[in-house]
Design goal:
Elements lengths: L3 H7 L4 E5 L2 H6 L1 H11 L3 E5 L8 H14 L4 E6 L1 H13 L6 H4 L17 E5 L11 E6 L4 E6 L7 E2 L3 H4 L4 H5 L1
Helix pairs in contact: 1-3, 4-5
Length: about 180
């Protein structure tokens, strides 16, 4: 995970948004990843307010942060499925027109396909089980409708997944085994 800066620099990235949640940030993994990115000459801005179960409101907040702090050349997600799914929504909505509901699967949303390429996304899972680092889906709750749904499109799949065992070593053995 400390070598991600090399990969991102070969893609031409200079400014990176790192997406994580407060719990993972407190453990220090995102800071180590950010340090490695900076060592490769990349500027890093961290968004550490990901909700453990993403909602339309939390994703909208993350996208607004990215739009205000950007532009970015890439997104790095460090954490569980919630951080990775939040990063997927950010990578989609900072490069494509419209709002979140335009892309949410029908019948809840309009199921619009991306018109522009998404920002490249690197997923660095710190837990096991969700598989979000390899899927084409961003899962979220739409609060007003009290429904769990998602955005699904092949463009949402992270360009690179880095599964660093040092970042998940503190998980309970049963979780890892499962």
């Amino acid at each position: 995970s400390r070598e991600l800066g090399y990969d991102l620099s070969t893609w031409g990235a200079q400014r990176v948004l790192l997406v994580t949640d407060p719990g993972v940030a407190a453990v220090g993994h995102p800071a180590l990843v950010a340090e490695g990115l900076v060592e490769h000459g990349l500027a890093v801005t961290t968004y550490d307010q990901t909700h453990v179960e993403p909602t339309d409101a939390s994703l909208t907040h993350a996208v607004a942060f990215a739009r205000a702090e950007g532009p970015f050349d890439a997104v790095v997600a460090v954490g569980g499925g919630s951080s990775i799914d939040t990063a997927k929504a950010v990578a989609l909505l900072v490069t494509n027109p419209g709002e979140l509901m335009d892309y949410i699967n029908a019948p809840v949303g309009k199921a619009r396909a991306p018109q522009q390429p998404l920002l490249p996304l690197v997923a660095v899972p710190t837990t096991t089980g969700t598989g979000s680092e390899s899927t084409t889906i961003c899962v979220l709750d739409v609060l007003a409708l009290k429904v769990k749904t998602g955005i699904s499109h092949p463009a949402l799949r992270p360009r690179l997944a880095v599964v660093d065992p040092d970042l998940s070593a503190t998980q309970p053995a049963g979780v890892t085994a499962a």
